[in-house]
């Protein structure tokens, strides 16, 4: 078959046969089909598209163009995860040890970062001593020991895709869903995992900017996987702002470790639990998503996931002490903070441009082969939908020089929008797509459509000027998030709760206007009326510890955390105590261990509190 005839047929919009596609790929690898001919083929596909069967045949031909890994001799069902790329996407560093600790066999091939999206291999190599170039036998040996290995993708996997992608990159033929799907899935199929969960990003910071295109890509990749005999599901997730709070290699490793300690950002934690639950169900390690998620929570809470991370790092030559001592990670010599220019709510963050700011600091590369600086990057202090006061931190810039830090801060100031609206919640997970004819997840495609409509409606209602709503002391709900120190203090306090009767441990932390943070836990008593709640314990301790009663500092924040399905709310007695010892606009954070947060004020909790002014004198 002549390449020119195949190109001509596709240019006319006709469907290519399996034999024609295989001949084209074979000829290209052999050098019989020239680069300019493959470029012409790619352009024809961009204009005319491909049928589902053509895309499957192209993917299988490229997957078979080089080495195909086979892990059938390893115990259990091998699982893998792939993300279509984004900013601050730290999921593999958390997800791999998390699902391995839950009993899965994880074998993952990963790549390096290019442009505004980070690469898993670059992040892992910011751990001192960590190496990612493993032979097949080293992977097998390590997986039999620890159930987990993440290695740098070899050049032998799907070489036809590698060469074709290089052409597409310089001929403006990247933006084609059949070519994108075949590129991703050819490498995933060649990597040999039985189960593949795809995290398909949607939004400003993702390759797929709109939901319709992302859904089309996800469905096509799931179909390709099923045709190849693999178990594949796709989860569509938002990428209109960075995932988590960190952007940059060592900073993201730090965030991954905090997440494995149970203290990570809510969105990163939730995404890892969502993807991990899907992986466990598809690997026959859990009956349903609810049971799978409960199992993942268990290994997070009992420390098994963090222990698995340490084992993984040690086996791949890294310094496992980083899991206990974050100071061992590379540190930038210059750290500057961009503060909020006004009070309000963060209504948008330009994810792609924020990723480019981090890239220019040295966290990423503009061209393949460039060196990166593992220590530089950004730490966000607020996310979309969260309130901020003028002068409070927005972004921490970690840079190599003062000049680079200043340039980054100038750029970031234009990328984060603050408006006078109510706090609101931005849903992270949009849909889960399973192969047709299989038992899908509990949250079906149709259910997700309805849920997304409700969430978008709620968000639209929330993003209104406060002047158009009933006035209150402060915005009263949403996806606001307290800073890490306050939350961690409350978590540690919760561990000291005395709850022999209910078993329901609660932790609290209050911040005073001088910056002091005071902890409290609930203390139960056989005489129920003598029981003291966590928030009252913290408040009483704070007031009792001041030296001069006339100069008692004001309470600026109260945080309460418990292991409950939804954030736990203070009892009536605690609300009355807060009303007397705090200001009406004092921020109250209600949290649970799943990362859900509700932001309120004291006035929201008890709008008609009994005050000293009401007492008869």
Short summary of the structure?
The protein is α/β, with parallel strands linked by helices and 617 residues long. Helix content is 41%, strand content 16%. The protein has 21 helices and 18 strands.
Q: How does the SSE layout of this entry go?
A:
Layout: H1 3-11, H2 18-30, H3 35-48, H4 52-63, E1 78-83, H5 91-101, E2 105-110, H6 120-124, H7 136-146, E3 148-152, H8 159-170, H9 177-191, E4 195-202, H10 211-227, E5 231-238, E6 246-247, H11 249-260, H12 266-282, H13 289-301, H14 304-315, E7 334-339, E8 344-349, H15 351-363, E9 377-380, E10 387-388, E11 393-399, H16 402-413, E12 416-419, E13 429-433, H17 445-462, H18 484-494, E14 506-512, E15 517-521, H19 534-544, E16 555-562, H20 572-581, E17 587-592, E18 597-601, H21 602-605
Parallel strand pairs: 1-2, 1-4, 2-3, 4-5, 16-17
Antiparallel strand pairs: 5-13, 6-9, 7-11, 8-10, 8-12, 9-11, 14-15, 14-16, 17-18
């Amino acid at each position: 078959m002549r390449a020119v005839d195949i190109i001509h047929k596709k240019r006319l919009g006709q469907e290519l046969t399996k034999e024609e596609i295989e001949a084209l790929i074979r000829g290209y690898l052999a050098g019989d089909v020239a680069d300019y001919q493959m470029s012409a083929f790619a352009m024809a596909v961009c204009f005319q598209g491909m049928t589902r069967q053509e895309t499957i045949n192209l993917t299988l031909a490229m997957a078979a163009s080089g080495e195909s890994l086979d892990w059938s001799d390893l115990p259990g069902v091998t699982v893998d995860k792939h993300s279509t790329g984004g900013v601050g996407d730290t999921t593999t560093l958390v997800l791999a040890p998390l699902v391995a600790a839950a009993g899965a066999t994880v074998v993952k091939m990963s790549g390096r970062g290019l442009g505004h999206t980070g690469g898993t291999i670059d992040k892992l190599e910011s751990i001192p001593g960590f190496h990612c170039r493993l032979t097949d036998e080293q992977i097998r040996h390590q997986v039999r020991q620890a159930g987990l290995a993440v290695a740098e993708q070899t050049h032998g996997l799907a070489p036809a895709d590698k060469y074709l992608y290089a052409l597409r990159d310089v001929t403006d033929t990247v933006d084609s869903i059949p070519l994108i799907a075949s590129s991703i899935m050819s490498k995933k199929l060649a990597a040999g995992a039985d189960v593949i969960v795809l995290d398909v990003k949607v939004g400003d910071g993702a390759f797929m900017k709109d939901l319709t295109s992302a859904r089309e890509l996800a469905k096509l990749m799931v179909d390709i996987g099923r045709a190849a005999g693999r178990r594949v599901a796709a989860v569509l997730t938002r990428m209109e702002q960075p995932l988590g709070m960190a952007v940059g290699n060592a900073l993201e490793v730090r965030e991954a470790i905090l997440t494995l300690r149970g203290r990570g950002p809510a969105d990163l934690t939730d995404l890892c639990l969502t993807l991990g639950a899907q992986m466990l169900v598809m690997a026959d390690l859990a009956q349903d998503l609810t049971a799978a998620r409960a199992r993942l929570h268990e290994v997070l809470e009992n420390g098994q996931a963090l222990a698995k991370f340490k084992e993984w790092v040690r086996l791949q030559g890294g310094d496992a002490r980083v899991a206990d001592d974050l100071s061992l990670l590379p540190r930038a010599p210059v750290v500057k903070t961009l503060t909020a220019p006004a009070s309000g709510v963060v209504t948008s963050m330009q994810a792609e441009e924020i990723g480019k700011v981090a890239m220019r600091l040295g966290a990423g590369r503009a061209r393949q082969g460039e060196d990166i600086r593992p220590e530089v990057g950004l730490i966000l202090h607020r996310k979309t939908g969260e309130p901020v006061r003028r002068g409070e931190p927005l972004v921490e810039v970690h840079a190599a020089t003062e000049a680079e830090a200043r340039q980054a801060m100038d750029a970031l100031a234009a990328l984060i929008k603050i408006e006078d609206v109510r706090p609101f919640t931005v849903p992270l997970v949009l849909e889960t797509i399973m192969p047709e004819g299989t038992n899908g997840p509990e949250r079906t495609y149709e259910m997700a459509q309805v849920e997304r409509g409700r969430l978008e409606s709620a968000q639209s209602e929330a993003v209104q000027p406060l002047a158009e709503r009933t006035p209150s002391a402060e915005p009263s709900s949403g996806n606001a998030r307290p800073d890490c120190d306050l939350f961690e203090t409350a978590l540690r306090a919760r561990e000291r709760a005395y709850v022999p009767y209910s078993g329901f441990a609660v932790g609290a932390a209050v911040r005073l206007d001088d910056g002091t943070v005071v902890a409290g836990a609930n203390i139960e008593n056989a005489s129920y009326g003598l029981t003291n709640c966590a928030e009252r314990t913290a408040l009483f301790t704070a007031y009792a510890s001041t030296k001069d009663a006339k100069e008692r500092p004001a309470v600026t924040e109260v945080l309460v955390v418990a292991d409950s399905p939804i954030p736990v709310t203070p009892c009536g007695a605690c609300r009355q105590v807060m009303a007397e010892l705090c200001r009406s606009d004092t921020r109250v954070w209600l949290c649970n261990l799943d990362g859900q947060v509700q932001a309120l004020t004291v006035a929201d909790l008890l709008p008609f509190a009994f005050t000293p002014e009401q007492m008869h004198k």
